[in-house]
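[stage:ingest] chain + small molecule (flavin mononucleotide)
[stage:ingest] validated
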Amino acid sequence: MQKNKVFIGFICLTMFLSFSACSKSSESEGNAEKPSQSTSQQTMSENNLTDASQAEEKTSSESASASSGSTEQTTSGSRVLVVYFSRTGEQYNVGVIDKGNTAIVAEMIAEKTGADLFEVLPQDDYYPYTYDELTDVAKQEQNDNARPAYKGEVPDLSQYDTVFLGAPVWWGDWPMIMYTFFETNADALKGKALFPFSTHEGSGLSGFDKKLSDALPDSTVGKGLAIKGEKAQNDPDNAREDVNEWLSDLGY
Ligand SMILES: Cc1cc2nc3c(=O)[nH]c(=O)nc-3n(C[C@H](O)[C@H](O)[C@H](O)COP(=O)(O)O)c2cc1C
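[stage:predict] done
[stage:export] tokens:
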């Protein structure tokens, strides 16, 4: 109960702080509620690199099919990569989920753009399965300005001109593991067009764009997208409309 109050408190705070950022995103309203279910086994893919055709197999949506990102060019003629972090198990406002909210959005982007997908997976998956415990661990990481290690080999970034980077908002910020990714790959991301996206339960984009730009000053950060996690999870057709509208604005 106390944690709920604390959480509602930081949602309000982060919504206030990120007001200007939220106004740039395509969708950011709504208040979070307590998750309705408890512990579940996390599911994680063995290999964190997939292409759009594999993503399509994994998603249950009815969207038009996408071509494999490994060889295809995008409509803008550039090669595209989607990098994302996402969790399963007990999640805010949606109960227990076996595909993360951000993963759903990442796959929609990949389908539409023909991108490759790279999932940022923790090297040591110490993240708890229950929502309340996860918030404690995430807060501790943030307080420590931690750089949790991720596993797997990042694809050769020189192949890509455009990189979409997405994550859930955690305590008003990118999860710290994404900063590990940014900093580890800063040189390889120089000069590239980066587009941030978040899923959230009230904080919108939460300044993901500015924070990304600060972390990677030699890259170009474009317009971001914020989608409520509950919408991505429970109303994917509408979420896809938001994704496609944003991508259309970006020229896809
Ligand atoms: C540790 C933690 C912190 C969170 N902090 C926020 C927050 O500050 N603002 C917000 O709107 N939502 C917050 N949420 C909700 C998530 O951003 C939201 O549920 C997201 O869609 C989860 O995405 P995922 O399933 O891809 O992990 C938080 C969730 C967790 C687990």
